[in-house]
Amino acid sequence: MSITGPFAQCRMVGNYSLGGNVAYRPLVQVDGWAPESMTTADPTLAAWNVAAHAARVLAAAANVRWQSIDYSARVVDGPMEGAPDTSRGLASPLLRVLVRAELTVHNQ
After folding, report:
1. Which of 26, 54, 86, 94 could be cross-linked to 30 through a Cys-Cys bond (beta carbons 3.0 to 4.6 Å apart)?
2. What does the alpha-carbon distance between residue 5 and residue 46 come to, in Å, rounded to a whole number?
3. Which long-range contacts link 62-67 to residues 24+ away (Cβ below 8 Å)?
């Protein structure tokens, strides 16, 4: 698969219960990735833009309701550069910038 532009990867990297089955504090990480071989923009800046936009969205989430779930987010670290992914070979690394946020989730 050929990656030609920046993208985001979202994942839950930790979680703990606040008691019972109705409240949790997941730690969410958003990785902004960009291929170093991008020709349309600076790949480092593109990865930073993805992570910075994710941080702004997460920081704005306060008492958001989705269906029967209420959640808020608190950015705990980032955006910050992470190690590049060289699993596709040293000639085509993916640059990485990440941000982590702790969510408070209440299931109604």
Report:
1. 54
2. 8
3. none
pLDDT digits (tens, 9 = 90+) for 49-101: 999 999 999 999 888 888 988 889 999 998 999 999 888 888 888 999 999 99
pTM: 0.84
| Residue indicated by tokens 């040293």 | 90
- Note the helical H segments in 1-108: 43-60
Find the angle CA(50)-CA(60)-CA(108) to the nearest 5 degrees. Answer: 115
SS3 96: strand
Q: For residue 103, which of 28, 32, 18, 17 has the smallest C-alpha distance?
A: 28
Q: What is the spatial distance between Cα 34 and Cα 78, in angstroms, rounded to a whole number?
A: 17
18 Cβ contact list (under 8 Å, min separation 6): 24, 25, 104
